[in-house]
């Protein structure tokens, strides 16, 4: 049975809410500190997840489960002695990998000069196949891409990058169907293409590039040289195994001692993930400090309230309230302030990323429901922990001395 004179818990809550309503401005300002802390925690986690997803999407946009290989000269090997990857190696790699490979394509490249507004301009000439679009996630902005018929018939067709199309013909649509002279031969422009993500000149695709069938490109080079060879693997889990098979195939088909670099983006993705995780931990620690500061602020405000309400506490004790009732009331005030601030912070922490997603649609904003729940629970826990001292101090007041307090 409940001790005679003890106040029911529901009544204790009503006392706590009444006091918070009486001190509206103080309660609002105190709760806002928790609002900012919780919103910061949610925004930090969202920013970390969004940043990680954005970086990963940029890396994956270079190519899907991509493996790339190229001849790596070593020692005093002259160009005449170099044992480059050739067209037959592409078919050999495709046969060796079997069901592991989604697409395989080689790239040959040279440079040529074209006339732009009466002035010569250097342009990158690339030769590849229809599968080049798959391995590099290329986008067709106008017209079409190369197809198997173009390679078999050695058709004199080409695609331009957007920058080249705009400089030469004014726009991508205007370029399709026109004729461009490459290495003194007329090529019909069938499309305009771009990389899936901007590589800022760090890939074989330059700003001004023209893409032609690799079966035609072969005749523009004195030596058959595929650089690089791209392989897209169906499953990310099979990338390492496929890379090893690519290396074995190339080494088995060429002279002993020839060096071939076979790499993939798994290492880059792993490094990006580690960096993102480290930044997330650091940012969450900062957010945790913000929560702690908010808790200290609430504790200080309630300690001031204990001193201001000493006479009130003494009166309540005189009319039958127990020390436990007083303790619960002040603890309830602390938790209520924290929870209300936490709920408002959760709303703000979700609203800000959603606003950012509307302003920058290209950002893969991902709000973690777990982070929202953890932030609100953490707010309640902080209020409970930092409310213990004021509650304990209030409950330990001597009723007689409290009534004498002015």
How many individual β-strands? 11
Largest beta-sheet details: 7 strands, mixed
Number of domains: 2
The tally of helices reads: 14
Distance between the termini: 36 Å
**Apparent shape:** elongated
What percent of residues adopt helix (DSSP H or I)? 55-70%
Order of helices and strands: HHEHEEEHEHEHHEEEHEHEHHHHH
Can you tell me the residue ranges where pLDDT is under 50 for at least 5 consecutive residues?
Answer: 1-5
Q: What class do helices, strands and sheet pairing give?
A: alpha+beta
Strand content: 15-25%
Average pLDDT value?
78
Taking all Cα atoms into account, the compactness measure Rg is 35 Å
Describe the model:
With 406 residues, the protein is α+β, with helices and mostly antiparallel strands. It folds into 2 domains: 186 residues, no CATH class; 199 residues, no CATH class. It is 56% helix and 17% strand. Strands 3, 4, 5, 6, 7, 8 and 9 form a 7-stranded mixed β-sheet that branches. The longest helix is centred in the last third of the chain and has 43 residues.
Features:
406 residues; seven-stranded mixed β-sheet
Quick summary:
It is built from 14 helices and 11 strands.
Topology readout:
Layout: H1 9-22, H2 24-62, E1 66-71, H3 87-97, E2 101-106, E3 108-116, E4 119-128, H4 132-135, E5 139-143, H5 148-152, E6 157-160, H6 162-169, H7 172-175, E7 179-182, E8 185-194, E9 209-213, H8 214-217, E10 229-233, H9 239-253, E11 260-264, H10 266-308, H11 310-318, H12 323-359, H13 369-395, H14 399-404
Parallel strand pairs: 4-9, 6-8
Antiparallel strand pairs: 1-10, 1-11, 2-10, 3-4, 5-8, 6-9, 7-8
């Amino acid at each position: 049975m409940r001790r005679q004179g003890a106040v029911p818990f529901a009544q204790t809550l009503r006392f706590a809410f009444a006091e918070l309503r009486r001190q509206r401005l103080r309660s609002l300002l105190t709760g806002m500190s928790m609002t900012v802390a919780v919103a910061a925690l949610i925004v930090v986690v969202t920013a970390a997840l969004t940043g990680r997803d954005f970086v990963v999407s940029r890396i994956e946009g270079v190519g899907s489960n991509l493996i790339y290989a190229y001849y790596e000269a070593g020692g005093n090997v002259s160009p005449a002695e170099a044992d480059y990857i050739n067209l037959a190696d592409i078919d050999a790699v495709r046969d060796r990998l079997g069901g592991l490979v989604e697409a395989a394509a080689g790239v040959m490249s040279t440079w040529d000069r074209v006339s732009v507004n009466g002035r010569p301009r250097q342009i990158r000439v690339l030769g590849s196949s229809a599968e080049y679009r798959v391995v590099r996630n290329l986008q067709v902005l106008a017209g079409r891409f190369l197809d198997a018929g173009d390679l078999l018939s050695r058709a004199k067709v080409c695609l331009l990058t957007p920058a080249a199309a705009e400089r030469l013909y004014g726009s991508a649509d205007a370029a399709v169907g026109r004729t461009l002279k490459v290495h003194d031969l007329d090529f019909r422009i069938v499309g305009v293409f771009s990389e899936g993500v901007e590589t800022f000149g760090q890939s074989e695709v330059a700003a001004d590039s023209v893409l032609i069938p690799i079966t035609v490109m072969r005749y523009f080079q004195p030596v058959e040289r595929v650089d690089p060879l791209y392989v897209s693997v169906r499953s990310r889990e099979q990338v390492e195994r496929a890379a090893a098979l690519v290396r074995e195939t190339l080494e088995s088909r060429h002279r002993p001692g020839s060096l071939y670099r076979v790499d993939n983006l798994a290492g880059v993705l792993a490094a990006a993930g580690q960096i993102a995780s480290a930044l997330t931990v650091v940012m969450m620690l900062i957010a945790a400090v913000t929560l702690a500061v908010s808790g200290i602020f609430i504790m200080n405000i309630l300690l001031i309230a204990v001193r201001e309400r000493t006479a009130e506490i003494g009166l309540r004790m005189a009319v039958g309230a127990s020390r436990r009732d007083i303790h619960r009331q002040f603890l309830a005030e602390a938790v209520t302030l924290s929870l209300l601030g936490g709920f408002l912070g959760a709303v703000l922490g979700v609203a800000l990323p959603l606003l950012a997603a509307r302003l920058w649609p290209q950002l893969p904003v991902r709000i973690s429901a777990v982070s929202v729940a953890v932030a609100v629970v953490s707010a309640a826990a902080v209020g409970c922990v930092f409310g213990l001292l004021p509650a304990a101090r209030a409950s330990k007041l001597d009723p007689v001395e409290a009534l004498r307090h002015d």
